[in-house]
Amino acid sequence: MNTFFRRFSVLSALILFSSVFYGCGYNTLVSLQETVNSAWSQVENQYQRRSDLIPNLVSTVQGAADFEKSVLTEVTEARSRVGQVKLSAEDLSDPQKFQAYQQAQDQLSSALSRLLVVSENYPQLRSNENFLNLQSQLEGTENRISTERRRFNEAVQAYNTEVRSFPSLIMAKIFGFKEKEYFKSTPGSEKAPDVNFKFEKK
Q1: Distance, CA of 24 to CA of 19 (rounded, Å)
Q2: Close Cβ partners of 150 (under 8 Å, ≥ 6 residues apart)
Q3: CA pair distance 30, 38, nearest whole angstrom
Q4: Is CATH 1.20.1440.20 the classification given to domain 22-175?
Q5: 45, pLDDT greater than 80
Q6: pLDDT for the residue numbered 19
């Protein structure tokens, strides 16, 4: 009888413990955190896609006579800085690391925008099929970056709300679920850079 009672007590305790975990939002926190991590990987994928386009873009632009070398240098250096700033899923709760990552990416966006604006002054580029193809790919990538950043912020908002809400905040403190950082708006970031050229009709 005592053995039965002990087993029953242990089983009851496990059921109660599991119910407390579930009721306090542990599983919800895990699920929301995985959603944030998934959204972050999509952001990284698009940034990497943009970075991969740059060497070919720079190489193509270098072929234009008298192209402004300072613009190419700015793009190359900005891409290099981006490659040096790594941010893992675990770093998404670190304000300084996240800010450094966003700043590096935003600087690259600015450098690319300047390159494409300057390129408008070079007719040979505007008739270069490879350049036009890269321009189209870059435009699509910038749009996807904007979309994935918005989705990431939405996932972070849902997660952070849960982390701050009772009773989930109890589990968050016990198991180290920390609030995540958002991508913050920078001038012009609400709109993907316009990399379309206006061609004059002949």
Answers
A1: 8
A2: none
A3: 12
A4: yes
A5: yes
A6: 47
Taking the domains of the chain in order of start, what are their residue ranges?
Answer: 22-175
Which contacts (CB < 8 Å, 24+ apart) does range 89-96 have?
89/36, 89/37, 89/40, 89/41, 92/36, 92/40, 92/156, 92/180, 92/181, 93/178, 93/179, 93/180, 93/181, 94/181, 95/181
Contact 102, 184 (CB under 8 A): yes
Give the residue carrying structure tokens 């008739």. 127
Give dist(CA 11, CA 152) in Å, integer.
Answer: 41
What's the chain's Rg over C-alpha atoms?
25
pLDDT digits (tens, 9 = 90+) for 115-168: 999 998 888 888 899 999 999 999 999 999 999 999 999 999 999 999 999 888
